[in-house]
Amino acid sequence: MLPVGLRRLVAAAIFLGAAAGAAAADPQKPVDQLFSGSHLKLAKQGDVIAYRFQRSVSHEKVLGAAFSDDIKLDIKAVKDGDKRDFAFQVFSGERARDPFPDHDRVGNPLLLWYLDRSVNAYKGLAGGGLTYVKGRFMDALKNATAEPTKVDVAGKSVDAFRLTLAPYANDPNASRMMGYQNSRFVIVYSDAVPGYFVELSSTYENTDAKAPRLEERVSFVSGGETK
Fold first, then answer.
1. Cα dist. 219→7, 41, 51, 87, 194 in Å?
2. Nearest residue to 53 (alpha-carbon basis) of 200, 203, 222
3. Which residues pair with 152 in a beta bridge?
4. Averaged pLDDT score across all residues of the chain
5. What confidence tier does 185 reach under pLDDT thresholds 50, 70, 90?
6. Is the pLDDT of residue 27 over 80?
7. In whole angstroms, how far apart are CA 136 and each of 19, 185, 211?
């Protein structure tokens, strides 16, 4: 049997692959850039692309502990075109997950991990069925528009895109979502940055200011050469 983390990544790939296929006719759609792009083309064999994960909570007794940890993408081999072999390591020490190796891939597995974690966290807070929660997220991705921006990476100012999603804000079932329907998800990406992703964040904020608040953020730290 596949490890739980790997099963979730595979399930997320299937779910999100459907979104990419649905929008494939328009190359300007963010969903194509995110799921069909060559995220690893700047990465060379031996590069380790490092990210910092930060989890902030308002109520530890309800949401669990706040913590920071590392996520690493170890490039094992460069293949034909933009394909790479890699090992994806989430967290360290006692929190470390089993490494996820893959071969001949152009995409960064960080995105699938982030999205899978985000929809599962939302379901845990807002309730509802996982299929429904993923479906609404998929719809938001298919219809999203990314805004151009500038970001500072490794001492350089580079062109990037910022994609902001609020998939549940106008949901017909928003009133059943325990006040978390305005949760926001932001993806910042740039083809000038090794691994493509600059920052991915999820903010779960309730309409009741006294309710638990959760924020998770993954930020690019180092690895490879920024163009």
1. 24, 19, 5, 18, 13
2. 200
3. 157
4. 89
5. very high
6. no
7. 11, 13, 23
Distance CA 205, CA 207 (A): 7
Beta-carbon contacts of 141 under 8 Å, excluding residues fewer than 6 positions away, are 16, 19, 30, 31, 34, 165
CA distance 90 to 51: 10
What residues have CB less than 8 Å from 74, skipping those under 6 apart?
48, 86, 87, 88, 89
Residue 23: per-residue pLDDT: 46
What's the pLDDT tens digit per position in 107-120? 999 999 999 999 99
Position of tokens 């009133």? Answer: 175
State mean pLDDT over 8-33. Answer: 55
Report d(CA 183, CA 126) in Å as an integer. Answer: 10
Question: What average pLDDT score do residues 78-98 get?
Answer: 95
Query: Could you give the 3-state DSSP secondary structure of residue 56?
Result: strand
Q: What is the pLDDT of residue 212?
A: 96
Lateral strand order in the sheet of 197-204: 100-105, 84-90, 67-78, 48-57, 214-222, 197-204, 184-189, 156-165, 147-153
- Percent composition of the chain: helix, strand, coil (DSSP 3-state, to 5): 30, 35, 35
Give the C-alpha separation, 15 to 135, whole Å. Answer: 8
Q: How far apart are CA 135 and CA 16, in angstroms?
A: 9
